[in-house]
Amino acid sequence: MRQERNNIFVGIDWILIILFIILVCFGWMNIYAASKADEDFQLLNFSTKYGKQAVFIFLTVPLIVTVLFFNAKFYEQFASLFYIISLLSLIGLFVFGKEINGAKSWYNFGVLGLQPSEFVKAFTALAVAKLLSDRQYNLKLIKNQIKAFVIIFTPALLITLQPDAGSALIYLAFFFVLNREGLTLNYLIIGTIAIFIFIFSILLGPTLILAILLGLTTLIITYITYKSGKRFLRFNWLKIFGLYAVMSLFIFGTNFSYNNIFKQHHRDRFEILLGLKTDTKTIGYNSYQSELTISSGGFSGKGFLNGDITKGDFVPEQHTDYIFSTVGEEWGFLGSSLVIITFILMLFRIIYLADTHTNKFGRIYGYSVASILFFHIIVNIGMVIGLLPTVGIPLPFFSYGGSSLWGFTILLFIFIRLDAHKNYDW
Amino acid sequence: MQRSFILYFLITLVGVVFIGRLFQLQIVKGSNYDPIRNSAVKIEYDYPERGYIYDRNRKLLVANELSYDVMVQPNQVKSIDTLEFCNLLKIDKKSFLKRLDKAKKYASYLPSVFLKQLAKEDFAYLQEKLHKYQGFYIQKRIIREYPFNAAANVLGYIGEVSEALAIKSNYYEAGELIGKDGIERQYESFLRGEKGKKYLQRNNLNKVTGSYKNGVFDTLPENGKDLTLTLDIDLQRYGQKLMSGKRGGIVAIEPATGEILALITAPSYNPNMLVGRKRSKNSVLLFNDTVSKPSFDRGLLAAYPPGSPFKMMNALIGLQEGVINEKTHFFCYNGYKYGRSKDAFMGCHCGIYAKPIRLKTAIARSCNSYFSNTYKRIVEKDNKPSAGLDSWHKHVTSFGLGNYLGYDLPAGSPGLIPDGKYYDKWYKYSWNASTNISNAIGQGEILTTPIQLANFTAAIANKGFFYTPHILKEVSKRAIDNPKYTTSKQTTIDSKHFSPVIEAMHQVFKTGTGKWSQVDGIDICGKTGTAENFAIIDDQKIQLPDHSILVAFAPKENPKIALAIFVENGGYGSTIAAPITSLMIEKYLNGKISDKNRYREKNMLNLSLEDIYAKLNQKPEEFASGTK
User: Which residues contact B338 (CB under 8 A, 6 or more apart)?
Assistant: First the structure.
């Protein structure tokens, strides 16, 4: 232990660090391409986006050192405290937060703004790891499941209220973790089925889908009754009735909320994605331009700083959420595939390392890190390449922004710290 | 590890799906991507000057003229004094609002044409005043100008490129001009030149931020090439004048080269009608006139049975096939009986009753019986009518009949020359020459266009070969070298067989139906004819006054001009077609009409068939005539 203190780099996983450096640096090059004006190159000029991002990147160095400085045990012991501070920082937003684009997601410190939700992910992951690693804890019990859900969804709820539904969505990633730790897959399966039913009821109308569903269920029940005799009906009629009721309620309930509670712009985004509407000018503009920009890159891309669509600022938010379209245009199929492969390697490495942990806390935290990054990558790249609806969340290590960069850095390096310790007995 | 598998699997799956989607976007879709046709690149065009068009004597037929359009960019229009502005442009307020609205609907931030083609005198005045009205400005354009009111059908016109083509083409943009008909369309690629392009980088606000890639793709405009046509504009104008008041067409060809000397259709229109501000009004007048059809080029498109001139064809085939020779004779009994029934009789006007008729006489007097016999011998040569007719078909088509001739104008009709199969299909293999005996005298199923007949005549004049008729002589003063038009085509008839036919055609103008249209000092060879024509009224086929047809070439030795003329409802060829032919030939060969023939010119200029056409439109059944 003493020896470690002296050298914070003992035992850390250099592969992850190299992947981290590759992503951050390549990300910065693309931010530079997307935000460069024709003025002279000024690396640390705070008035340019790429200059700011360079500063943010330099500042990750002290951040990383700090994260690595603390003992692994420290993170386990103080997980609950970090979590509570996180929640307070989120609650504080409603009072002190600065409203940008209709959402109170930011604290404003003069020259610098901080977005707590970017950091809270890491601390929620710590809290989840702490809860699930308890020896007494058994996820099979409903009571324990509810505890886990409360820990996960409290920050999600607070973030939704800002309102920033996109960032809140990320907390669904913890389902992977819970599943890894023994939570039945049924939640995931039911959830997925519910999503598909919802989509089809939007596409084809609720009545038809309900009729099909009820018909199918009736068929199955008839079949079971036929196989096992009338006893089945006698003992289960209430459940069967309940099943019908739940299905009807779900379909009409979601349709009602879709049509009456969702805002028109949500519906538009959704319907454009489903192909019910075509729109290249107003709401669909982002996706249309983004796809076009990526297509224009072709196999090997137009070359660094040669993306003419990028230069023309045709893709909105290209340095933040749509940064991947710059990769697509300037580095082509080769470059963008390589970025995806790099991300996959990083995820694989994290899961692999997590699986080697003998310590439950480290393993669960590692899983959380992988799941959160994975979810970000799916939602962000899926959106940029037009497979998923527009949800404004950043691409880890790539997108412009100090909070998100630091948030992901802390998330990753806490794991690297925990991982460096896995061979020590604590 | 077991449970981690799910996450490994999902990550791999997402990776594959994403890379697959990237493949679809960047490799599949990206392959159609044109790097300089995206929203980030703005192309500015520099329009070249369209090529001029000259006639064979280098008289200017088509030139360019500057024209000025008032343009508007609606989002820059500030409050203006509408009344004053309307007065300035000579439009009323309603029209002003309509035009502005149309421009707004197109795109508020893009310029569109507000008022087309200002009068030149208005331009100078407007130029001074217009700066007061923000959002309006004047743009220079080049439009066509036609010094002669002639040959509209040949020259064609230019117009805005169709939307469909603008989308499909990688050269034309919406609103640009393109040749729509005639030479303008046929030789668009020569005439238009290449527009110069400047590629500019622009941003999402449509603001140009500089040149794209330092202008490596930029090009300079290349002016269109000047064309020289084979047309003799004096002859063309003269022919148009002679045809005034008549409907029909004249095609004149130089036999030695296949060059089209005149291509006249009547009625025609002034080419300047399709230029300028009155254009849209005029085009309605021209293209919606389904009665006199001024936009229908009769010289190229009017397919009719050729009538008597086709007898020369059958004579030539008979000679070539050896079924007749110069001394072969047939008898005529005021007609030809081709079957047992009483109706199976074809009348004849040759007037030589029951005396032997030989080839030259038969042509000169246009004896139907002679050619019916000849035709029968050709078709039934080996007692196999289908094979016989096929060989006949082979000879006829070698003269360019029965198919598109291949001339360089964008209008045409193949006509029709039936072959054995054609009748096999209709008559289920049980037919013989009598079934289609009308083909002997150029009636029946045969259809030809005037230009095909003119070419046929040129081939006779050349004694067995022809050059595909063409209208283009030089490109940028360099003679064309397209082998299609510079190498001759041989017909299947040996040149020795032409002499008796030409002699006979000479007789036609010496002693036959053309004798009243002779010109001193010029040996004209020709043949008159009539084409039956019918109208279908209440499902009944009603015969209308015949179209008159004439083919001729001159002089007999070393022919300089071959022509075919056809006059709708003109009756016998000798009354209208012959004098017009003779005048055309005299004008072309002598350059002027001799005093002796002035009366002929005067008669033809004053002759109008409009009365007949007018009546025809009202009551065609009254014109029904049973005679052939």
Answer: B344, B345, B346, B372, B376, B434, B437
Q: Does A161 map to a domain? A: yes
Q: Report in angstroms the alpha-carbon separations of B230 from A317, B132, B476.
A: 64, 51, 14
Cβ distance of A328 and B22 shorter than 8 Å:
yes
Classify residue A38 as exposed, middle or buried by CB count within 10 Å of its CB (0-12, 13-18, 19+).
exposed
Q: Quick check: helix, strand or coil at residue B229? A: strand
| pLDDT tens, position by position, B568-605 | 888 777 788 899 999 999 999 998 899 988 999 998 88
The H or E element spanning position B384 is none
Task: Give B174: exposed, middle or buried? Use CB within 10 Å, 0-12, 13-18, 19+.
Answer: exposed
- Is residue A155 located within the same domain as residue A209? no
Q: Where a domain ends, among A225, A241, A261?
A: A261
Give pLDDT tens digits for B390-432. Answer: 999 999 999 999 889 889 998 889 999 998 888 888 887 788 8
Q: Quick check: B168 contacting A, CB < 8 Å?
A: no
Q: Tell whether A372 is within 8 A of chain B (Cβ).
A: no
Alpha helices in B291-366 (DSSP H): 298-301, 310-321, 359-365
In a domain, B219, yes or no: no
Residues B364 and B248 in one domain: yes
| Claim to verify: residue A162 and residue A235 sit in the same structural domain | no
Same domain membership, residue A161 and residue A76: yes
Contacts of residue B19 in chain A, CB cutoff 8 Å? 337, 340-341
> Read out DSSP for B424-473?
HHHHTT---GGGGGGGGGT-TT-BB-HHHHHHHHHHHHTTSEEPPPBSEE
Q: Does A297 touch chain B (CB under 8 A)?
A: yes
Amino acid present at B185: R
Shared domain for B400 and B275, answered yes or no, is yes
The residue from B101, B123, B142 where one domain ends is B142
**Total number of domains in chain B:** 2
What residues contact residue B589 under an 8 Å CB cut-off, 6+ apart?
B522, B554, B555, B560, B561
Question: Does one domain contain both A175 and A199?
Answer: no
Would you call B18 and A385 a contact, using CB atoms and an 8 Å cutoff? yes
Do A162 and A77 share a structural domain?
A: yes
Question: By mean pLDDT, which of A268-272, B305-309, B464-468 is the weakest?
Answer: A268-272
- Residues within 8 A of B (CB atoms), A 188-217 only: none
What's the rounded Cα separation, in Å, for the pair A170 and A119? 12
**CB pair distance less than 8 Å for B26 and A348:** no
Termini Cα distance of chain B: 102
CB < 8 Å from A in window 22-41 of B: 22-23, 25-27, 29-31, 33, 35, 38-41
> In this structure, how many other beta carbons lie within 10 angstroms of the beta carbon of residue B282?
17
Q: Does B15 touch chain A (CB under 8 A)?
A: yes
Distance from CA of A293 to the nearest CA of B (A): 9
Chain A residue closest in CA terms to B204: A314
Rg of chain B (C-alpha set):
32
B83 and chain A in contact, CB less than 8 A: no
Q: Do B6 and A179 touch (CB under 8 A)?
A: yes
Are the CB atoms for B546 and B531 separated by under 8 Å? Answer: yes
pLDDT digits (tens, 9 = 90+) for B186-209: 999 999 888 888 887 777 666 677
Domain residues for the domain of B560 are 233-286+293-623
Whether B62 contacts B146, CB under 8 Å:
yes
Residue with token string 């035009």: B99
Which structural domain range is residue A217 located in? Answer: 190-261
Spell out which residues of chain B touch residue A299, defining contact as CB-CB under 8 Å.
26-27, 30
Residues of B within 8 A of A370 (CB-CB) are: 7
CB contact under 8 A, B203 and A386: no
Among the partner residues B4, B30, B209, nearest to A297 by beta-carbon distance? B30
